[in-house]
Amino acid sequence: MRAAVLHPGGGPSLDLRDDVTALGPDEGEVKIQIKATGVCHSDLSVVAGGLPSQGTMIVGHEGAGIVREVGRGVTGVQVGDHVVVNWIPACGRCPDCVNGESHLCMTHMSDLFGKARFAVGETPAFGMAGTGTWAEEIVVPWEAAVRIDDDIPFEYAALLGCGVSTGVGAAVNTARVRPGSTVAVLGLGGVGLSVVQGAAIAGAARIVAVDPNRSKHGVAMQLGATEVVVPEELRATHDAVTQGRGFDTVFEAVGRSATIQAAWDVTRRGGDTVIVGAGAADDLVQINAFELLFRARNLLPSVYGSSDLRRDLPLLVALHRQGRLDIESLISRRIRFDELNDAVSALEKGDVIRQVVLFDE
């Protein structure tokens, strides 16, 4: 089958091959035929070496498709089900799951580099985030396959599996944006624009969207932003919108120390700075001890939008059906598998929001 392979040492180009095999399914696992998969900034970070990888890897984590095989003991899904790939599958048994924090479950995540999910020729290979959706087939624990209605297009379902659920979840689950509040969103990729939508859904009165790429500004306004500015205009907008007090909630959806600092600086005392972007381990954020106490701001990580996909996916689908969640506007291009390297380059340049590979193309 076809798959995008990242060899040890990283890019700059992916090895697009047709001799890759998905291994399994074993007990408790399912094989999914991937029909659509998104090209996300986290994928770019893995290719570039900003996020960790080990050995030979199949890239991709945002996908949707059809269950083709089930291993022994699987009862939660069946062959023929349309499913979204959940890259933090919840076991339902660990303390985090029992406490209602399934996005922190490490039962399956702890084995990311312990079990090879693919073979590239004769070489064992791992799947990014335990998945590897830039492949025509993947094998994952059954908990990672979340059923979705058959009439939802696969490209929409793929984005619901990560970018949309992470962004909307950051606003609704992590920050719990309040009606009438003021919000700023730094970074207008697929996740950041989904944060904008989540804040609008939650009833924020003012949503200031920030990105240096002006081509994204119109989309942000369409999706619910009340003001859109470039970074150099943020301070003046902060003063005008909040009378210098600071925003109630500021989301950083880039994953860089400089934008985290910028988000922190425009958050009001008692407000929340929410970290949504996935950054590098060596990119250090420096906030002094005095500030941490006396500025009294909250620094909140938002892993996967604090989402439980089995709980949240039906809600997101309902919002989409009601016309309150726009997925189509997040898709810049639908592409073929053999265009993946070009897609990575376009994402790196900031030319696109979300590109989606359609494997039937």
From TrEMBL:
PROSITE patterns in UniProt: ADH_ZINC
Keyword Iron on entry: no
PANTHER family: ALCOHOL DEHYDROGENASE (PTHR43880), ALCOHOL DEHYDROGENASE CLASS-3 (PTHR43880:SF12)
UniProt similarity note: Belongs to the zinc-containing alcohol dehydrogenase family.
Organism of provenance: Micromonospora humi
GO molecular function: S-(hydroxymethyl)glutathione dehydrogenase [NAD(P)+] activity; zinc ion binding
GO CC terms in record: cytosol
GO biological process: formaldehyde catabolic process
Lineage: Bacteria, Bacillati, Actinomycetota, Actinomycetes, Micromonosporales
Cofactors, names only: Zn(2+)
Keywords in alphabetical order: Metal-binding, NAD, Oxidoreductase, Zinc
Record-linked Gene3D superfamilies: Medium-chain alcohol dehydrogenases, catalytic domain, NAD(P)-binding Rossmann-like Domain
Domain Enoyl reductase (ER): 10-358
SUPFAM superfamilies in the cross-refs: GroES-like, NAD(P)-binding Rossmann-fold domains
InterPro entries according to UniProt: ADH-like_C, ADH-like_N, ADH_Zn_CS, ER, GroES-like_sf, NAD(P)-bd_dom_sf
Protein name: S-(Hydroxymethyl)glutathione dehydrogenase / alcohol dehydrogenase
